[in-house]
Design brief:
By secondary structure, this protein is of the alpha+beta class. It has one domain: Ribosomal Protein S5, domain 2 (2-Layer Sandwich). The strands form two sheets. Strands 1-2-3-5-4 form a five-stranded mixed beta sheet. Helix 2 packs parallel to helix 4. It is globular and about 55 Å long. The termini are far apart.
Amino acid sequence: MTQLISKKNLRLDGRKLDELRPIKLTVGVLKNADGSAYIEWGRNKIMAGVYGPKECHPKHMALPDRALLKCRYHMAPFSVDDRKPPQPSRREIELSKIIREALSPAIVLEDFPRTAIEVYVEVLQSDGSSRIASITAASAALADAGIPMRDLVVGCAVGKVQDKIVADVSDTEDKEGQVDLPVAFMPNLNLITLLQSDGALTKDEFEKAFKLALEKGRYVYEIVRDALLEGFVGRKNEKEGN
């Protein structure tokens, strides 16, 4: 097995145990979408686009008291080392459902009955923890679209690697590590919208991992907020001709 953590407690990419990979987020990148965001989280490169609220098709799926939230998570064939077939896989279908359920509590869906809000997530390059990066990008795209939200949804995937708790699991750590624990939440409301675990943790390990996920998720929240503010100011200056 690969030695994932050195004797100096440094990981394969040189990070400390509690260190995030570099994150870069930009909003308003798709002109034909109502809202959009592009995130680079480590080597992950993910685009999210939001359309709506708009008329629901097919009409029989419309809900009388709220908007219907549709989410599609898709990995480009070239996003992974071994070319992926273009048709949706079971994993993509599952992650589409997970992303929808993680975002739903944050959106004020009841303000738009009998309509649909569509969220599309395209993974251009994948390198571990892509579901959290996708949720973060989709949340930023929803806010960029001006859709009323109770809070942004952000998070962090924490793992257990060589019996040590680490933040922001990479692809190699996900595949060869012991545990992957993705957590998404609404920081201002202190509400968890996603909590999964692939592996076993003791009570103390879980508490440490969960606390680390919340701490790093709040840092990600600041990045998203700053990106949204920068995008708003940029569009305002563009309209004013500055």
